[in-house]
Protein backbone atom coordinates (compact mmCIF):
# COMPACT_ATOMS: atom_id res chain seq x y z
CA UNK A 1 0.00 0.00 0.00
CA UNK A 2 1.35 3.39 -0.99
CA UNK A 3 1.01 6.35 1.31
CA UNK A 4 -0.28 9.57 -0.23
CA UNK A 5 2.36 12.18 -0.88
CA UNK A 6 1.65 15.63 0.42
CA UNK A 7 1.65 18.38 -2.18
CA UNK A 8 3.16 20.91 0.23
CA UNK A 9 6.51 19.10 0.51
CA UNK A 10 8.36 21.72 -1.49
CA UNK A 11 8.43 24.33 1.25
CA UNK A 12 7.14 24.95 4.76
CA UNK A 13 7.68 27.52 7.50
CA UNK A 14 10.03 27.27 10.48
CA UNK A 15 10.23 30.20 12.91
CA UNK A 16 8.27 32.32 10.42
CA UNK A 17 10.80 31.59 7.67
CA UNK A 18 9.85 29.52 4.63
CA UNK A 19 12.26 26.62 4.19
CA UNK A 20 12.76 23.54 2.09
CA UNK A 21 12.18 20.25 4.01
CA UNK A 22 15.73 18.87 3.72
CA UNK A 23 17.18 22.11 5.01
CA UNK A 24 15.33 21.72 8.31
CA UNK A 25 17.76 19.08 9.64
CA UNK A 26 20.76 21.23 8.82
CA UNK A 27 19.22 24.41 10.29
CA UNK A 28 18.10 22.57 13.43
CA UNK A 29 21.61 21.18 13.93
CA UNK A 30 23.24 24.55 13.26
CA UNK A 31 20.82 26.28 15.65
CA UNK A 32 21.67 23.77 18.40
CA UNK A 33 25.39 24.44 17.91
CA UNK A 34 24.81 28.21 18.04
CA UNK A 35 22.58 27.93 21.12
CA UNK A 36 25.30 25.93 22.88
CA UNK A 37 27.80 28.73 22.15
CA UNK A 38 25.69 31.92 22.12
CA UNK A 39 27.48 33.29 25.19
CA UNK A 40 30.92 33.02 23.57
CA UNK A 41 31.69 36.35 21.88
CA UNK A 42 34.45 34.63 19.87
CA UNK A 43 31.93 32.20 18.33
CA UNK A 44 31.29 33.09 14.71
CA UNK A 45 31.00 31.60 11.25
CA UNK A 46 34.35 29.84 11.37
CA UNK A 47 33.58 28.14 14.69
CA UNK A 48 30.14 27.10 13.44
CA UNK A 49 31.70 25.56 10.34
CA UNK A 50 34.23 23.68 12.44
CA UNK A 51 31.51 22.35 14.74
CA UNK A 52 29.45 21.19 11.74
CA UNK A 53 32.54 19.69 10.01
CA UNK A 54 31.74 21.65 6.87
CA UNK A 55 33.47 24.26 4.76
CA UNK A 56 32.53 27.90 5.17
CA UNK A 57 31.16 28.09 1.63
CA UNK A 58 29.00 24.99 2.14
CA UNK A 59 27.55 26.29 5.41
CA UNK A 60 26.91 29.71 3.91
CA UNK A 61 25.23 28.18 0.86
CA UNK A 62 22.96 25.96 2.98
CA UNK A 63 21.98 28.78 5.36
CA UNK A 64 21.38 31.17 2.47
CA UNK A 65 19.25 28.63 0.59
CA UNK A 66 17.20 27.69 3.65
CA UNK A 67 16.73 31.05 5.38
CA UNK A 68 17.75 33.63 2.77
CA UNK A 69 20.15 35.30 5.24
CA UNK A 70 23.90 35.08 5.73
CA UNK A 71 25.50 32.76 8.28
CA UNK A 72 26.59 35.68 10.47
CA UNK A 73 23.04 37.08 10.44
CA UNK A 74 21.74 33.64 11.43
CA UNK A 75 24.14 33.53 14.40
CA UNK A 76 23.08 37.05 15.39
CA UNK A 77 19.40 36.11 15.06
CA UNK A 78 19.82 33.19 17.48
CA UNK A 79 21.68 35.45 19.92
CA UNK A 80 19.00 38.13 19.74
CA UNK A 81 16.26 35.56 20.29
CA UNK A 82 18.07 34.45 23.44
CA UNK A 83 18.45 38.08 24.53
CA UNK A 84 14.72 38.56 24.10
CA UNK A 85 14.17 35.69 26.54
CA UNK A 86 16.54 37.28 29.06
CA UNK A 87 14.82 40.66 28.75
CA UNK A 88 11.71 39.20 30.34
CA UNK A 89 13.72 38.91 33.56
CA UNK A 90 13.78 42.37 35.09
CA UNK A 91 16.68 41.70 37.46
CA UNK A 92 19.35 41.93 34.73
CA UNK A 93 20.66 45.06 33.08
CA UNK A 94 20.67 45.46 29.31
CA UNK A 95 24.48 45.52 29.32
CA UNK A 96 24.76 42.25 31.25
CA UNK A 97 22.30 40.60 28.86
CA UNK A 98 24.37 41.84 25.93
CA UNK A 99 27.48 40.21 27.40
CA UNK A 100 25.57 37.01 28.21
CA UNK A 101 24.53 36.54 24.60
CA UNK A 102 28.00 37.10 23.17
CA UNK A 103 28.13 40.82 22.38
CA UNK A 104 31.29 42.60 23.51
CA UNK A 105 29.69 46.04 23.16
CA UNK A 106 26.33 46.85 24.78
CA UNK A 107 25.73 49.76 22.37
CA UNK A 108 26.21 47.51 19.35
CA UNK A 109 23.84 45.00 20.96
CA UNK A 110 21.18 47.70 21.37
CA UNK A 111 21.55 48.79 17.74
CA UNK A 112 21.38 45.20 16.49
CA UNK A 113 18.33 44.46 18.66
CA UNK A 114 16.59 47.61 17.45
CA UNK A 115 17.31 46.78 13.82
CA UNK A 116 16.09 43.19 14.20
CA UNK A 117 12.97 43.78 16.32
CA UNK A 118 12.14 47.40 15.51
CA UNK A 119 12.31 48.51 19.16
CA UNK A 120 15.17 49.04 21.57
CA UNK A 121 15.83 46.47 24.31
CA UNK A 122 14.62 48.99 26.89
CA UNK A 123 11.37 49.61 25.01
CA UNK A 124 10.87 45.87 24.57
CA UNK A 125 11.32 45.28 28.30
CA UNK A 126 8.95 48.13 29.19
CA UNK A 127 6.32 46.64 26.88
CA UNK A 128 6.74 43.27 28.60
CA UNK A 129 6.41 44.83 32.04
CA UNK A 130 3.15 46.55 31.03
CA UNK A 131 1.74 43.22 29.83
CA UNK A 132 2.62 41.33 33.02
TrEMBL record:
List, alphabetically, the InterPro entries matched: Homeodomain-like_sf (IPR009057), HTH_AraC (IPR018060), HTH_AraC-typ_CS (IPR018062), Tscrpt_reg_AraC-type_HTH (IPR020449)
What SUPFAM superfamilies does this protein map onto? Homeodomain-like (SSF46689)
**One Pfam family for this entry, by name?**
HTH_18
Keywords from the UniProt entry? DNA-binding, Transcription, Transcription regulation
Q: Residue ranges of the HTH araC/xylS-type domain?
A: 28-127
Q: Which SMART domains match?
A: HTH_ARAC
Q: Does the keyword Transcription apply?
A: yes
Superkingdom as given in the UniProt entry: Bacteria
- Entry's transmembrane regions: none
Q: Which PANTHER family match?
A: ARAC-FAMILY TRANSCRIPTIONAL REGULATOR, HTH-TYPE TRANSCRIPTIONAL ACTIVATOR RHAS
User: What protein is this chain from?
Assistant: Helix-turn-helix domain-containing protein
